[in-house]
Design brief:
This protein is α/β, with parallel strands linked by helices. It contains 10 helices and 5 strands. Helix content is about 45%, strand content about 15%.
């Protein structure tokens, strides 16, 4: 499946011959930004073509590979017509990984609202998805350019469309490698702590979820990522969320 994804990316986002030599140093530089310097990271790296190519052709396949081991063991009960909100979607990493890891979902009509501050990575990801899954895939994607909090407020109103019960009701809200960029030094509001910002985001997530919906959040295995997961878990428990994994209790 990884080989098929790499082929799909080559079709959806081919690297010009003049840029291929720059790919290894771009991967090294972006790797440094995404690890040791991640607390200061913002999504501005999407605007640099060399970093976008590095992410698409190196980091995206490896992230999908890792997620494909994780997702089958998680309780994400989607059915025909389920709606998913993907926050900080980037090149649709989580939807692509979900398609690879859950073949039981591939023929179901699922609807994804994908949100990020940059539209181009999502467009490349969407093209790669259909190159991988086929143009007849019943999965549908709406790509929306929004900051996270603004996206969640808009989602609660169905992004301006008529929604059941007057608001959106997502069966699953996903956030992959998003909290660290939301709360990092480069993205943090001057008068907002990570804890305060996470409490606001978790509250908005709670409002946008269906009664039995799932919230899936994934962060890098760094000290900063671990701290944010702990803060997000605390905020979620205060909102009445029930933890399902990896902790199966509220202690």
């Amino acid at each position: 499946m990884l080989d098929r994804l790499i082929e799909a990316l080559a079709m959806a986002a081919p690297i010009p011959a003049s840029h291929r030599r720059d790919l290894p140093p771009a991967v090294r530089e972006l790797s440094r930004m995404l690890t040791s310097e991640r607390g200061e990271l913002s999504r501005s790296y999407w605007s640099a073509p060399r970093f976008l190519a590095a992410y698409l052709h190196f980091f995206l396949p490896w992230n999908v590979f890792r997620l494909a081991w994780l997702l089958p063991g998680l309780d994400i009960p989607l059915s025909s017509g389920s709606r998913v909100l993907d926050l900080g979607s980037g090149p649709l990493t989580l939807p692509i990984a979900l398609w690879c890891a859950r073949p039981d979902l591939r023929r179901l009509p699922l609807f994804f609202d994908c949100v990020d501050v940059a539209i181009k990575p999502m467009e490349y990801g969407k093209a790669a998805f259909f190159a991988l899954a086929g143009e007849d895939s019943p999965w549908r994607f709406s790509l929306r350019r929004f900051p996270v909090e603004k996206a969640l407020r808009a989602a609660c109103g169905g992004f301006g469309k008529q929604a059941s019960a007057g608001k959106a009701a997502y069966d699953c809200i996903m956030a992959g490698n998003m909290l660290n960029e939301l709360c990092g030094g480069g993205a943090q509001h001057a008068r907002s702590t990570p804890q305060a910002r996470l409490e606001e985001v978790i509250g908005l997530v709670f409002s946008a979820l269906a009664p039995k919906g799932r919230f899936f959040v994934l962060e890098p295995g760094t000290r900063f990522g671990g701290r944010l997961i702990a803060l997000a878990r605390k905020a979620a428990l205060l909102r009445g969320f029930t933890p399902l994994a990896p902790c199966t209790h509220a202690g």
